[in-house]
Design a protein that fits this description.
Oligomer: homodimer
Structural class of chain A: mainly alpha
Number of helices of chain A: 10
Number of strands of chain A: 0
Distance between the termini of chain A: 79 Å
Helix content of chain A: over 70%
């Protein structure tokens, strides 16, 4: 009997794992929609369970408490899928780093920012707005700022290795500028609040970066 | 006797008004420091009373509830004094609008932003971070966004009246860009978090605006 139970377990385990993965993904997608629309503070675990069509305890067992859900939503939307590969290892990010022409590199970087912000600007801004009111979210927000600064450094150092920068800007200054201006918040202001298209944002950012950073 | 009371009232009234103005100003300055340091949500009316050296009820009678205090702190720090003159009527704002040379105009605008943000970036960001958690602050935040957009329009239209803009940008696009990039948040990121000096910020912003907006 022990043997048959083990056999059945071995037989159903991949299907169960697939079901667990789907449930988890449905919860994260539901949470993403709600955080983006209503904000993090106004969204409850009950709301997330209802939107995902699962029972409330399933949310806790599949993902965790609300701040853990937010963390996983962020990981998922930054990368665009649930593969455990960091952004800087993604082919689209590497394509920009490896592009030898500095103008084309900045155009690829602007494309990458547009791609990421279409997915994650809303939830990124939800984290920022909840950061002061909730210490767990505050800690996540600080970590996200450090990751984005690190990503900006990669791009700045790669650019500085390819070309003389304007006015003798160094890679640190360029990293600070990318980190403070090419942000999800600026994207959100222009696209959500002022009605720009994502493509218009991409062209504008590419242009701004080329003019601000590269010599004539 | 009625006459003597009236006389005394008339006699002491300017001194009392002056004392009331000083108390009010001490409360607003204390609130500004606390909002900037601790954030709006973490600051109580008790904290403000203690920091200002007044009794708690004096805060309510002199200024009002916490959201009203925040509103008055913002009015005070945006303009830099407690005169009832709107920012766009201030000589330093008019100086930029009236400057005929577009490069010099953008340098004056960058100077104005530096001057304002040195005073108000911290409390501006405190409003943004508390906007989601507190509906009164949310409404104030929306109003502040509209005021800043209106100010950006004045500058954009004045610039468009003086020169051809780059790439056929129109005044609306320029206003959106000023509103989304020349923000207190970008100032705060660069100066508070990345350690730039306010003067470095001013030079960088002037340069960025000239390159992004004006033809070669």
């Amino acid at each position: 009997m022990g043997g048959s139970v083990n056999d059945r377990r071995r037989y159903t385990s991949p299907a169960r794992r697939e079901q667990a993965r789907k449930t988890r993904r449905a919860i994260l997608d539901a949470a993403h929609r709600l955080f983006a629309e209503k904000g993090y503070l106004a969204t409850s675990v009950e709301d997330i369970a209802r939107e995902a069509g699962v029972a409330r305890p399933t949310v806790f067992t599949s993902v965790g408490v609300k701040s853990q859900i937010l963390k996983e939503v962020i990981d998922l939307t930054l990368a665009g899928d649930d593969e455990p590969v960091p952004v800087r290892e993604r082919p689209w990010f590497r394509e920009a780093l490896e592009e030898p022409d500095p103008h084309r590199m900045l155009h690829l970087h602007a494309r990458n920012m547009r791609m990421m912000y279409v997915r994650c600007a809303d939830v990124y801004c939800a984290v920022e707005s909840a950061a002061e009111a909730d210490p767990d979210v505050g800690a996540l927000w600080q970590a996200m700022q450090r990751w984005r600064l690190m990503g900006s450094r990669f791009v700045a150092e790669s650019l500085a290795g390819k070309t003389r920068l304007r006015d003798g800007y160094d890679a640190d200054t360029v990293a600070d500028m990318l980190w403070s201006v090419a942000t999800p918040m600026v994207y959100r202001k222009l696209v959500r609040e002022r009605g720009w298209s994502p493509e218009q944002y991409e062209r504008w950012l590419a242009d701004l970066l080329c003019r601000a950073l590269l010599p004539d």
